[in-house]
């Protein structure tokens, strides 16, 4: 099954592309392309493994909608997150 046949609301950007975002041109191009595809399809993006403020700023400037990672918040039990 290909992407255009799937029903989805979010495209998650793998942390392997996020961790090297500041220094790796390939990572920057992949993130830019994923954001462009998602926006073109009217979908949202989620970046994982966001570990610092500079990456957060780059993602915001690049149009990424949501972020997750240690910079955003430490993992916690679901029961604590919804208490």
Give a verbal description of the structure:
By secondary structure, this protein is an alpha/beta fold. The chain has one domain. 41% of the residues lie in helices and 12% in strands. The chain has four helices and three strands. The chain has a three-stranded parallel β-sheet. It is globular and about 35 Å long.
Instruction: Name the poorly predicted regions.
Output: none
> What is the 3D form?
globular
Q: Give the biggest beta sheet.
A: 3 strands, parallel
Structural class: alpha/beta
Order of helices and strands: EHHEHEH
Mean pLDDT: 90
Instruction: State the helical fraction.
Output: 40-55%
Neighbour order of strands in the largest sheet: 1-2-3
Number of structural domains? 1
Strand content: 5-15%
End-to-end separation in angstroms reads: 39 Å
Q: How many strand segments? A: 3
What would you report as the Rg, rounded to the nearest angstrom?
14 Å
Helix tally equals 4
Oligomer: single chain
